[in-house]
Design goal:
- The complex is a heterodimer of chains A (95) and B (416).
- Chain A is 18% helix and 35% strand.
- Chain A starts with a strand and ends in a 5-residue tail after the last helix.
- Chain A has a four-stranded antiparallel beta sheet with strand order 3-4-5-6.
- Chain A contains two helices and six strands; from the N terminus they run βββαβββα.
- By secondary structure, chain B is α/β, with parallel strands linked by helices.
- Chain B has two domains: 22-78 and 84-91 and 182-249 and 346-415, FAD/NAD(P)-binding domain; 106-180 and 253-341, D-Amino Acid Oxidase, Chain A, domain 2, CATH 3.30.9.
- In chain B, strand 1, helix 2 and strand 2 (59-62) form a beta-alpha-beta unit.
- Classes of the chains: A alpha+beta (95), B alpha/beta (416).
- Chains A and B meet through strand 3 and helix 1 of A and strand 12 and strand 15 of B.
């Protein structure tokens, strides 16, 4: 599997570390309900199909990126800097 | 037909013309008392013990492909009960005890071989951790033996004891651990269940759950609707998908795990050895192939195949532990998809939906658990109460904080 880093171009999977589901956002600290924390920490959609996920290009540019990848085929559908996702979230836009 | 040395001789002398099919291939009936989804080891063991221990025989096992076509046919066949935590040890030890009596119990040769499982340690800290684990095992009545370097050398002299980075300091040995023939386990349970009246329905994929008033009343399948009073899911690897049909979200991610086998060799290694410095373990099948594996690939996947990065990693582990392996050719490698739970331990429990039971989250420890998993899941389905040995494997433990985290890695499934 080769991942097209938005900054470095296509690189081997070996250069990247995986975090997981990018749909998750940490609830607001002390105000979070137990249900919200349970959902954030433990529950996953775990789709068989397109999955949006965080990868870290630790052996390259050190950027965090969001990869949309089909979990049935490992085909990569799109890639963007994690920063873009965070900014859209910050502006309250739909993801 | 009951198998014995006499049936073997009689059929051999008559030219093997009178063997009968090992199980029937029935059409699905309209309704059953219990439908088990998933015709792998766990599902078939559940059906077997439902019929044998609880007298529940109006049971169907529905399987989307052929029996044992998923992870039951993709594992590395190791059986052991060298666990640390209270919620785990009694369960896995019960599994070990069932393995020890399994072949007599279901009258089938599962090639259970108690050749020992040896975990190597390479540092003082790791040795301390093994002392702790060994003590926990012995306190629960499980056999465990701490070996020093020379005792390990007597068992496996070909290992690289003086590896400059990871010298072997000793190991923790469970002599009762070993291997079993994975396909025969599936076939033995299938035959035992079938002969007690359970319908094994192959090529029958569940496509939906039908619910009525918060209760499951049956499953939609590629061969039509099958009504059931109770539905048990034993589809590890795909638990999220099938439970999702009932509207449940699970504390599980699906990951791919690869395994490898070499060309057949003369007997080289008569035990199971795990390398403590990297994730690598190896044993030799009765056919002669060296069977080994390592870590997960590390990303969500339903693909049943992995990537070269992990293959390279496993081969590096192999060469660091046993340099002589470099002369042996790898014959095949494959991938299976695992239910990686958020604490590394399984789930055998009721669900919020009446009549729907879940058995999943086996991470990559499902094969050794097959007998006890079936035993406890059958108990749960028959009595609607968890079996004491599996009482800790609750679905709601993630909400209540009663996690069973053997590795201590936290809610990061690709590290368990």
């Amino acid at each position: 599997m080769r991942i097209p880093c938005p900054y470095c171009g296509e690189r081997d999977r070996q250069e990247f570390a995986y975090l997981g589901d990018a749909a998750k956002t940490r609830p607001e600290g002390l105000d979070a309900t137990e249900e919200a924390m349970l959902d954030y920490l433990y529950l996953r959609d775990n789709p068989a199909g397109p999955h949006r996920e965080f990868w870290h290009h630790f052996a390259g540019c050190d950027a965090w990126i969001v990869v949309t990848r089909d979990t049935r085929t490992h085909a990569i559908l799109s890639v963007e800097p994690a920063r873009e996702l965070a900014l859209r979230r910050h502006r309250g836009e739909t993801l | 037909m009951r198998y014995s040395v006499f049936s073997l001789i009689a059929n051999a002398l008559s030219g093997d013309r009178f063997w009968t099919p090992v199980w029937r291939e029935p059409e699905p009936k309209a309704a059953y008392e219990v439908v088990i989804v998933g015709g792998g080891g766990h599902g078939l063991a559940t059906a077997y013990y439902l019929a044998k221990e609880h007298g529940v025989t109006n049971v169907a096992v529905v399987e989307k492909s052929y029996l044992g076509s998923g992870n039951a046919g993709r594992n590395t066949t190791i059986i052991r009960s060298n666990y640390l935590l209270p919620g785990n040890i009694p369960f896995y030890e019960w599994s070990m005890k069932l393995w020890e009596g399994l072949e007599q119990d279901f009258n089938y040769n599962a090639m259970v071989s108690q050749r020992g499982v040896l975990n190597l340690c390479h540092s003082d800290a790791q040795r301390d951790a093994y002392v702790r684990r060994g003590n926990a095992m012995r306190l629960h009545g499980v056999d465990a033996q701490l070996l020093d370097r020379e005792e390990v050398r007597a068992i496996a002299p070909f290992l690289d004891f003086d590896n400059s980075r990871f010298p072997i300091q000793g190991g923790l040995l469970q002599r009762r651990g070993g291997t079993a023939r994975h396909d025969a386990v599936v076939w033995g349970y299938a035959r035992g269940a079938d002969s007690r009246g359970v319908d094994l329905i192959q090529n029958c994929e569940v496509t939906g759950m039908r619910m009525e008033g918060g209760r499951v009343i049956g499953v939609e399948t590629s061969r039509g609707f099958i009504r059931a009073k109770k539905v048990g899911l034993a589809v590890a690897g795909h638990s999220s998908r099938v439970a999702g049909m009932a509207g449940l979200r699970l504390p599980i991610e699906t990951h791919v795990l690869q395994a490898f086998v070499t060309e057949g060799m003369k007997p080289l290694i008569d035990t199971v050895v795990t390398f403590g410095a990297s994730h690598f373990y190896i044993s030799q099948s009765d056919k002669g192939g060296l069977v080994f594996g390592g870590d997960l690939d590390g990303y969500n996947s339903y693909a049943q195949r992995g990537n070269l990065t992990l293959i390279e990693d496993v081969m590096e582990g192999a060469m660091a532990l046993w340099p002589g392996l470099g002369r042996i050719r790898v014959l095949r490698h494959w991938g299976g998809v695992m239910d990686m739970s958020m604490d590394g331990s399984p789930i055998i429990d009721r669900t919020p939906i009446d009549g729907l039971y879940l058995n999943g989250g086996w991470c990559y420890g499902g094969f050794k658990a097959t007998p006890a998993s079936g035993w406890c899941f059958a108990h749960l389905i028959a009595n609607n109460e968890p079996h004491p040995f599996a009482a800790a494997y609750r679905l709601d433990r993630f909400a209540t904080g009663h996690l069973i985290n053997e590795s201590g890695h936290g809610a990061q499934p690709n590290l368990h």
